[in-house]
Amino acid sequence: MKWVILLILSTVMLSQCGDAYVFEEDVEEEMIDYFTSFAIEGEERGLVIDWDVERIATQLVHIEEDAIGRCLTYEDGSKVINIDKEFWDNSSNLEKEFLIFHELGHCLLERSHNNVMNQRGVCQSMMNSGENICTINYNLNTRKRYLDELFL
Ligand SMILES: [Zn+2]
Q: How far is ligand 1, taken at its centre, from the CA of residue 27, in Å?
């Protein structure tokens, strides 16, 4: 009996390792537009993204802590962005874009948090930690400036 269980376990591990990355399958359908938009904004700033090289997948999950998103890196170099389902379902397009771009900032641009703010306490980076240290002011008027800073 033990042997059978072992066999099943090893099969699961093998199939996980052998799975090729497919952008359209590994990124949640409702997040693909934000990924595409990230690539376009990056390209306009001189960064060409090959999703087959980056191998970033997404999962809509329930995140227990206060976090609404996170970037997980695995030993084989593949990465998964977890997005809290409740946040996602209750957010505007701009809020969703902000979160996906922030997590891609971690996962793809390898940026860490930056809570730099102006005199009025407004966050100057999309990579702020989201802990209310500074105020996020991401809207259609400030979007370009934030993206310039993100891809610097
Ligand atoms: Zn973050």
A: 19
- 21 vs 17, higher pLDDT: 21
Distance (Å) from CA 108 to ligand 1 centroid: 12
**Integer Cα distance of 110 and 47 in angstroms:** 13
Query: Domains along the chain?
Result: 21-151 (3.30.2010)
Distance 79 CA to ligand 1 centre (A): 14
Model confidence at 133: pLDDT above 50: yes
Residue 59: strand, helix, or coil: strand
Q: How far is the CA of 127 from the centre of ligand 1 (A)?
A: 6
3 state DSSP class of 68: coil
Q: Which of 122, 12, 28, 25 is nearest to 69 (CA)?
A: 28
Cα 4 to middle of ligand 1, angstroms: 42
Measured CA to CA, the distance from residue 31 to residue 22 in angstroms comes to: 14
CA 20 / ligand 1 centre spacing (Å):
27
Task: Please say if the pLDDT value at position 84 is more than 50.
Answer: yes
